Every structure is written in structure tokens, then in C-alpha cells.
Amino acid sequence: MKMRLELRWYIFVILMSLLVLWPLLRHGFYISDDGEWMVIRLSAFYQSLAEGQFPVRFLGRLNNSYGYPVANFLYPGFLYIGSLLHFLGLSFVNSVKIILGASVVGAALFLFASLRRSFSPLSSFIGVFSFLTAPYLVFDLYKRGSVGEILAIFAAAMTVWTIEAGFPLLFPMAVALLIVSHNSLALLFTIFFCVYLLVARRFNWFVHVAIGLGLSAFFWIPAFVERNVVKFNLLTISDPRQYFVTLQKLDVVGLPFIAGLVVYLLMRAHKSSSRGHGIYTGGFFIGLFLASPWSGAIWNNPTFASVFQFPFRMLAIVLLCGPWLIARSVEYQRSVQGKLVGLYIVLGLLSLAPILGSIKFVDRPEGYYTTNEGTTTVADEYMPKWVRSNVTERNSNRIEIFQGKGTIEPRLVNTQRIDATLILETDSVIGLNTIYYPGWGVTIDDHPTSVDYKNDRGLMRVSVPRGTHHLVADFRETPLRFGADSISVASLLVYVLLIAKFAFVKKQRS
């Protein structure tokens, strides 16, 4: 009977999630800052994956078919998941919608399960309700279309549950998923969870943190080490001063969270309860501070600003910690519990309505996404430094005779590999209309040859003597990336052995 009642609350959480997610059920895709670009990136990622590149780092279809290494730097988590969903038969649009929807529902369920470790079903549900109706969540979902951030919030909620439930075996997978979900939020949440483990004196959990870092090493090691090869550090992506959460924009925090903060301060003043998780309260206040103009001095640090970019992004911590503040106020203010519940529900719906009411949709054919060759980034910040002049038009020929005379007989040409027979009447320069990035290699008659990319567009050029030759150009793993891949494989083996050991010990005890 008790289990049935508990199950009902989980069903209520799912139904409440659907109140937020119903726009995803509409045909087409909604207009947002990044949403459709993420669909386009997913389709290009899947194309590279299908053509044999793994792990995927260089998306050859984008940048007007000249390619660039965006997947080497920007959160590939949703791209791998979306590729699997597309392989199973879903369109790219529906794959992204499912990732968004499942992430929100999954985060809500994990948060509810975490809150239930400390609070009653009602208090926990209201805490999750405040999460689901938080304007920042809905803003991220429908205005920004940030698939990576939504997936990262799910991974963070999953990580919270593993800590609260004392389930370390799932912790490495949650950490790994978090790291590949979104660059900035991965760093933000990882710092938060490490502080939590230190405060809670769970030092043995840092072994699992290390395994999680190892599982995701294939992504974060190359992304970190190779960041100086691209233009990211040379560009100012945004001016943080324009994105602070001021008093005039305080509603983006969420009316329930603001009310919960007031109740919390009153509770502290009257010492109505000393219970609760201080780490979540601290995270809530730190998140608000870093999102506000009061933290301007911190955002003046160029490294901090380049990593996190937008002060309002710090509301992700508020989003994760706020439900604990809400649940605590409902749990321990018994004399006004009913009024508080009603207040939070009304304020939550008021916070939610304006954004849900302003969503606009477009209905495009699948081909719009699968043939689009844009770069999908704000300022081409992941373009190699040696590209001084961006291409604005596509070239239908991936291989051509740049200088000289002869003919080219293609054997296989796609975004990852060029295999062709060259019949040259003179010493020639062969042009490969793909931007060079470390990992591209060229062989002539099975012998490695040097690649010249010192031109304004950073395109590959190869000198070939007269005669008939066999040219192969393909994208491979560098020693650094291969080493990172090896760390991930080794970490996976350690993780599997850890799970096997746990299962064996449990079986012996039973």
C-alpha cells in the first residue's frame, strides 16, 4: 500500500512535467536561439559518425562543406544520444525533442527521489514543482533551445540522487554524462559536487569522481589541451555585463524561489528549524550572487568570463538547489503549510505562463536540417587559428587540381575520407577543399606526405609529381586523442570490474 502511494507521487511528477513539455508534442520545431542549430549539428554529427569517424570530432559537412572541429570542443553528449535515436528510426527533430523532454522528466524524477530522502511526499512534490515552473528552465528550453544545458541539468539531478541515496556505483556514469553534456555547466556542477563530498566527508567517493573523469576523458582532455589551436581564447563571445540578473529581471529566478527565499530568511530569524542540507542552501545563495551585478569583479576576470560566458547561467545552480529550500519551508512550517503550498503553486503557474504562451513554431522538411551547412556556433570560435578568411560559399568538389594539369578519378569521397586516382600530366598541387585540423593525414601511393595549409582559408594543399598516383586523405586520431580514448576505455573496464565486484559481494552475502 505504501509503495502504491509513493508511485502515485511519481506519476504526479510526470504529469506535472507534461504541463511544461506539451509544446514539444506539436508538429515541427519551435523558434529559439539555438534549437534548430542543434538539430543541424546533430544531423552533421550523425553523417560523420555514419561515415566512420569515431569518436566524432570533425564535422565535415558544416562550414559550407569545408568542415571544422566543433565536435572536438562542444558537448557531444546529446549528439551521441541523438544519433542513436535517429539510428532507431526517429527524425533528427524528434530525436532532439525526446532528449529535451526525457531530460526534464528525468531530472524531475531524480530530484523528487532525492528530496524524498529528507522530506514528505507533499514537500518533495512542491520542491519539484518549483523546479519545473522555474523560468530559467523554461527559458533554457524554449527561448534558448539549449539542448546541452537541459541534458546537463538532468545529469546533475541524477548525480544529486546518487549522493543522497548513497549509490556510488551510478555516480561515475552520472559524472561522465554531466561532463559530455555541457562544457560550462559540467565545470560548475562538478565543483559543486566536489565541495559537497568534501563537506560531507565522503572522501572515498573521489575514486568514483576519478572514474567519471576517466570515462569522459576522450572528450575533455582533447578539448582542454587543444583549446589554444582554435580562436576561442582570441574572441569575446559575450559581454557579461549585459547578462546580469538585476532586480528588474529578478522574475527569471522564479517567483516560488523568491518567495521560498523570504520564507527561509524568516525561518532562520525565528529558528523554526535547523534541519536541511546546508550545501544546497549555500549553492542557492552562491548561484544568486554570481548571477547578480554584485559579482561584477569576478566576471571581470577574463578566464572566468570566457569559461562561463553568461552570468544568468549561474541560475542553473539555483535551479538545482532551490527545490530543497522550497521543500524545507513546506516541511517545517506546519502551521501555514497549506497556505505555503497554495502560494507556491500559484506563483509557479504565474512564472510559467508568459513563456509558454509566447512559443512560436516552424514546420520545416527534414532536408532543411540534413543539408544545412552553417557552422552552428556564435562567432566561429572553434575555427582553427590559421583560418584568416572564412569561406562564404560551398565548393562542390572536395578534391581538385589546384595547380597543374591532369585528371582525377574519385574512388570514394565523403566528409571524412577522400580516395582518388590522380593521372597528372605535370607536377601539380592537389587542392583538398577541407579545412586542415590536426588529425587529417594524406598518403600518396601509401606513403605519408606533407600537407600545406598556410593559406587564408586554411585549406589543404598537396604537391604531387607527374604520373599516376593513388591519393588517400582521411581524418584520424592524433596520439593525444588516442591516449585520451585509451583512458576512457581503461576507465570503462575498471568501472565494469567495480560493478562485477559489487554484484559478486552482494550475491555472497545473500
Describe this structure in words.
This protein has 510 residues and is of the alpha+beta class. The protein is built from 19 helices and 10 strands. The strands form 3 sheets. A 5-stranded antiparallel β-sheet has the order 4-5-10-7-8, with no helix packed on it. The radius of gyration is 26 Å and the shape is elongated.
Protein traits:
alpha+beta; three-stranded antiparallel β-sheet; 510 residues
* Radius of gyration over C-alpha positions, nearest whole angstrom: 26 Å
User: How far do the termini sit from each other?
Assistant: 26 Å
H/E series, N to C? Answer: HEHHHHHHHHHHHHHHHHEHEEEEEEEEH
The mean pLDDT is 90
Query: What class, by secondary structure content?
Result: alpha+beta
Quote the beta fraction: 5-15%
Summarize the model shown:
This protein has helices at residues 2-21, 35-50, 77-87, 92-115, 121-132, 135-144, 147-164, 171-181, 183-199, 206-215, 217-225, 255-270, 278-291, 296-299, 302-308, 315-332, 337-356, 366-370, 479-509, and strands at residues 29-30, 361-362, 399-403, 406-413, 417-424, 428-435, 440-444, 447-449, 459-464, 467-475.
